[in-house]
């Protein structure tokens, strides 16, 4: 195994300096890694714009953050349901009205292991619609201000990219045939990662190298992910695997690293480097070639423009 560039304990938030004057937009902060990442960013003095679907939960989250960090932290919530394109577009507009700077957009929110095929109001399988198309549209609409800020786009993927069918099922993207929770979730996370590496190439081609795009994942972290959308069986399985997992706080480190660490190589895939990439010191680790399959990535990008009607202004 290659030595971790951040030493034997890997990347930790001690490396983050003062973030006063920096603005981070982060999705899904009511629990799990998004909550922990927000807490750490705020503790370093950043402004955090949270995008959450549930206003009551978002209010409770802000209250809890203020209780822990003090009333003068700079945090707001904008309502966004990532599974609905109309809501994502409205939220992006509100973000653009609220802030003229985004140092990093952290695409953290997701659903996972949805037991049965569900179709969103926009006509997509729920995990593809939420985790992939939701983020696609959010990233594209916020891109102009990220570009102006020489900022970053950080996608929170999953080791699931290397499970399932390990490619995009273009002829049946909604899994009308052979739906399984794992296949559909894995495809959505693979799509998220693929579009980041494709975005890098497109930015590179036109010389827009000031914007950086990163793919990472939290390993196996104790969060609400499976209890929110997974079946009872999945919840039991995750419970049994508990001793092999890490805290939600540690799960937040890869996204924090990608949002703040200077000079981080964009070609890397970042997450825990220990057992099965579930736990352990955070750093770059191996990514399988199917995640960087250029032909598939290009086709997915073009399809996404068509499906969402949203084009990137690159
Ligand atoms: N935990 C793991 O072991 C693991 C492993 C691999 C990858 N990941 C990835 O890590 C990221 C964070 O997940 P987590 O484990 O921290 O899970 P979590 O505790 O369930 O947090 C997910 C967050 O996303 C939000 N969310 C879900 N659907 C949404 C929607 N339609 N619109 C807006 N927000 C929505 C949730 O909000 P609500 O409170 O409203 O539900 C919550 O704030 C995800 O991208 C996930 O795929 C996690």
TrEMBL record:
InterPro entries the UniProt entry points to: NAD(P)-bd_dom_sf, SDR_fam
Tagged with keyword Oxidoreductase: yes
Signal sequence, renumbered to the chain: none
Any Pfam family matching the protein: adh_short
Keywords: Oxidoreductase
Full protein name: SDR family oxidoreductase
């Amino acid at each position: 195994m290659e030595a971790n560039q951040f030493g034997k304990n890997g990347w930790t938030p001690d490396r983050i300096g003062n973030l006063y004057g920096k603005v981070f937009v982060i999705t899904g902060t009511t629990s799990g890694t998004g909550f922990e990442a927000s807490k750490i960013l705020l503790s370093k003095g950043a402004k955090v714009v949270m995008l959450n679907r549930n206003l009551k939960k978002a209010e409770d989250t802000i209250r809890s953050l203020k209780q822990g960090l003090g009333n003068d932290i700079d945090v707001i919530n904008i309502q966004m349901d990532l599974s609905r394109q109309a809501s994502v577009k409205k939220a992006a507009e509100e973000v653009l009205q609220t802030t003229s700077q985004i140092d990093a957009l952290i695409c953290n929110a997701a659903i996972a292991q949805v037991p049965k095929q569900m179709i969103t109001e926009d006509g997509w399988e729920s995990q593809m619609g939420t985790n992939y198309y939701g983020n696609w549209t959010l990233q594209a609409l916020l891109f102009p201000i990220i570009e102006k800020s020489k900022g970053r786009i950080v996608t929170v993927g999953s080791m699931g990219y290397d499970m399932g069918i390990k490619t995009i099922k273009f002829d049946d993207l909604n899994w009308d045939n052979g739906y399984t929770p794992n296949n559909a979730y894995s495809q959505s996370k693979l799509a998220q990662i693929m579009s980041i590496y494709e975005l890098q190439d497109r930015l590179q081609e036109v010389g827009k190298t000031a914007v950086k795009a990163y793919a990472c994942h939290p390993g196996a972290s104790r969060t609400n992910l499976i209890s929110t959308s997974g079946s009872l069986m999945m919840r039991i399985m995750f419970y049994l695997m508990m001793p092999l997992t890490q805290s939600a706080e540690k799960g937040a480190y890869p996204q924090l690293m990608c949002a703040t660490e200077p000079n981080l190589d964009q070609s890397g895939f970042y997450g825990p480097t220990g057992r099965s990439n579930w736990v352990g010191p955070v750093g770059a680790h191996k990514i399988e070639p199917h995640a960087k399959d250029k032909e598939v990535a290009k086709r997915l990008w073009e399809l996404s423009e068509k499906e969402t009607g949203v084009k990137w202004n690159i």
